[in-house]
């Protein structure tokens, strides 16, 4: 099942159908020493804590390897990815990553890596479920944390 941009119902169905497989993959990564960030959530319906699994590589953008700033977090079956400070090879100054923005945060359904010998999660589809734009590091980091909290509550 592929989720379309903004198709939260389809994404939720995909996450529910793959929840145990996803949870097993996260448990395996944690057992292998993956870094875990615990974050107190403001949502009263939440049990009080959510585990966020941090990943070291950019989670989206084909030129993500040329971004000096990137955050990638797996939370609740979703991949939250923030990239910015895009410096194409040979450029000293950051270029806009999109129209009117130097940073962007996108949310995707997470998928375990099946095609490469790695332990990270990737996008199940290339279609984003949510988006935020920023023009400085502080705002980009805040947008990333806000998206993690929002999607942890799904």
Task: Describe the protein.
The protein has 154 residues and is α+β, with helices and mostly antiparallel strands. The protein is built from 3 helices and 7 strands. The chain has helices at 8-17, 19-31, 137-152, and strands at 36-40, 49-55, 67-75, 78-86, 103-112, 121-123, 130-134. Strand 5 (103-112) and strand 6 (121-123) form a beta hairpin. The longest helix is centred in the last third of the chain and has 16 residues, at 137-152. The radius of gyration is 15 Å and the shape is globular. Residues 1-6 and 35-49 have low confidence and may be disordered.
In a few lines, what is going on in this structure?
Helix content is 25%, strand content 31%. With 154 residues, the protein is of the alpha+beta class.
């Amino acid at each position: 099942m592929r989720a379309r941009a903004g198709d939260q119902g389809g994404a939720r169905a995909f996450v529910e159908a793959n929840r145990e497989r996803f949870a097993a993959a996260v448990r395996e990564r944690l057992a292998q020493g993956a870094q875990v960030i615990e974050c107190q959530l403001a949502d009263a319906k939440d049990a009080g804590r959510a585990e966020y699994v941090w990943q070291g590589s950019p989670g989206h953008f084909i030129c993500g390897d040329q971004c000096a700033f990137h955050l990638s977090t797996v939370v609740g079956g979703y991949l939250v990815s923030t990239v910015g400070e895009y410096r194409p090879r040979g450029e000293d100054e950051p270029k806009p990553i999109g129209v009117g923005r130097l940073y962007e945060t996108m949310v995707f359904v997470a998928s375990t890596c099946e095609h490469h010998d790695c332990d990270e999660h990737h996008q199940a589809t290339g279609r984003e479920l949510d988006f935020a734009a920023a023009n400085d590091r502080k705002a980009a980091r805040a947008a990333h944390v806000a998206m993690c909290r929002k999607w942890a509550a799904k």
